[in-house]
Specification:
The protein is an alpha/beta fold. The protein has 8 helices and 16 strands. Helix 2 runs antiparallel to helix 3. The N and C termini lie far apart (64 Å).
Length: 369
C-alpha cells in the first residue's frame, strides 16, 4: 500500500474555511488500526506462510514504528483506553488475530520509545470482564504488564520471544481466562487457548509471572504460563477443574503454588528447581499426589515444601530432592509462611502482591541465616 495515500486516509480531507478538531491520540490509534486491519486481513491467506511472527507481526511492527507512528506519540493511558474500547468487538477470527498483533506492536513501539528515554513501561489494564482474543499476542519489551478481568483466546501468548531485547520483570494475569475450549482434541496441548503460554526465552527469562484467581476451564491440564521461561512463578487462588494438571516451564528457579489445590499435580521443568513450595490452606479439595517423572527422568528439586490442610500425607513420587519437608514437619518449620498464605484468600491483586513480597522476604531471611 502507498504510504502517502495511507496517511492521507488517516488525516482525512479538510474543507476550506472549516476548522477541524484534531483527532485525539486514542482516535488516531483506532484510525491506524482500521487501516492496518483492512490491509493485513486481506493478505492473510495469500502472504502468511504459516510463520505469523515473520510474515505478519514483524512487517506490521516495522511499518508502524518507522512510518505510521513515526510522528505520532501516545502513552500507556492511551493504549489502555484503546484496549478497553476495542474489547468485546464482534469480528471474524482473522480480524481478531490482526487486531491482537496490533496491540502488541503498539506495546513494543511504546516500550522502545520509553527505553530510549530511560523510562520503564508499566501497563495495567482492568478489562472489567470483557473479551479480547489475542490481546498482546507476541507482545514484548514491556517492563511490567498486569491484565485483570479479561477472557479470550491466547491472551499474552509468546510475550517477548526475542532474546536480544529486555524481558519483562513481571507479568501478572488476574482472572484472565480462555473463553472457548477445543475439547475434541485431547492431543492438542494448547487446545484451551490458555493465556500467557510460551513466553520469555532461555537467555532472557521473565523475572516473575503471577497467575492469580484464574480458572482452568473444562478438561484442560495446562495452566497459565505453561511452557514459558521465567525466574519465579506464583499461582495464587487458581481453580483447577481437571483432576490432574501439568505445570511445565522450560526454565524456572522457584515455583510457589498457593491455595490452588489440585488432586494430582505433575510438575515438568526443563531444569532443576531451587524451590518448589506448595501450600494449601483452603478447606475441601486436597492434593493427593505429586508426580515428578518426565520422559523417564525424575524431577530434581533442591527444596520441596508441601503442606495441605486437608491432607497431611501427600504422596510424592519420582523426585530427586535435597530437602523434603511435608505435612506436620512443614507446619512446624514453615508456620510463618502458612499463616501468611491463610490470609491470601479472596484478595485483590494489590494485596496479593504485597503478600507475595512478604513471603519472599520471610523465606529468604529464614533460609539465609
Amino acid at each position: 500500500m502507498n504510504t502517502n495515500l495511507a496517511l492521507k486516509k488517516l488525516k482525512g480531507i479538510k474543507p476550506k474555511g472549516v476548522k477541524v478538531k484534531p483527532a485525539s491520540e486514542v482516535e488516531n490509534l483506532f484510525n491506524i488500526c482500521k487501516l492496518i486491519t483492512d490491509e493485513y486481513v486481506d493478505s492473510y491467506y495469500s502472504d502468511w506462510k504459516g510463520e505469523e511472527f515473520r510474515d505478519c507481526f514483524v512487517p506490521m511492527y516495522m511499518r508502524l514504528d518507522s512510518n505510521l507512528l513515526k510522528d505520532f506519540s501516545f502513552t500507556e493511558s492511551d493504549l489502555e483506553s484503546f484496549v478497553k474500547l476495542k474489547s468485546d468487538e464482534c469480528s471474524d477470527h482473522i480480524t481478531k488475530k490482526v487486531v491482537g498483533f496490533y496491540t502488541s506492536a503498539l506495546l513494543r513501539v511504546l516500550s522502545k520509545r520509553n527505553h530510549a528515554k530511560g523510562k520503564k513501561t508499566k501497563l495495567r489494564i482492568d478489562g472489567r470482564n470483557s473479551t479480547f482474543d489475542y490481546l498482546f499476542y507476541w507482545g514484548g519489551q514491556v517492563d511490567e504488564l498486569v491484565l485483570e478481568n479479561f477472557s479470550g483466546r491466547d491472551i499474552c501468548k509468546y510475550v517477548e520471544r526475542k532474546k536480544t531485547q529486555v524481558c519483562p520483570s513481571i507479568i501478572s494475569l488476574v482472572n484472565v481466562n480462555p473463553n472457548e475450549l477445543d475439547t475434541g482434541n485431547k492431543y492438542n496441548r494448547y487446545s484451551s487457548f490458555t493465556p500467557g503460554v510460551m513466553s520469555g526465552t532461555l537467555l532472557a527469562p521473565i523475572g516473575m509471572v503471577c497467575s492469580i484467581n484464574n480458572t482452568q476451564q473444562g478438561g484442560t491440564k495446562f495452566p497459565t504460563f505453561n511452557s514459558s521461561y521465567a525466574v519465579e512463578a506464583w499461582y495464587v487462588g487458581n481453580i483447577f477443574n481437571a483432576k490432574s494438571h501439568y505445570i511445565g516451564f522450560n526454565r524456572l528457579n522457584d515455583l510457589w503454588l498457593l491455595n490452588s489445590p489440585v488432586e494430582s499435580l505433575e510438575p515438568i521443568f526443563g531444569c532443576e528447581l531451587d524451590n518448589l513450595i506448595i501450600i494449601n490452606t483452603l478447606p475441601g479439595r486436597a492434593c493427593q499426589c505429586l508426580e515428578g517423572l518426565d520422559r523417564g527422568k525424575c524431577q530434581k528439586v533442591k527444596n520441596l515444601i508441601v503442606y495441605d490442610v486437608n491432607n497431611p500425607e501427600v504422596k510424592i513420587r519420582d523426585f530427586e530432592v535435597e530437602n523434603l519437608i511435608t505435612g506436620n514437619d512443614a507446619l512446624n518449620q514453615f508456620k510463618y509462611l502458612i499463616d501468611v498464605v491463610e490470609t491470601m484468600q479472596n484478595q485483590n491483586y494489590d494485596n496479593t502482591i504485597i503478600k507475595i513480597n512478604q513471603l519472599k522476604q520471610l523465606y529468604e531471611n529464614d533460609t539465609t541465616k
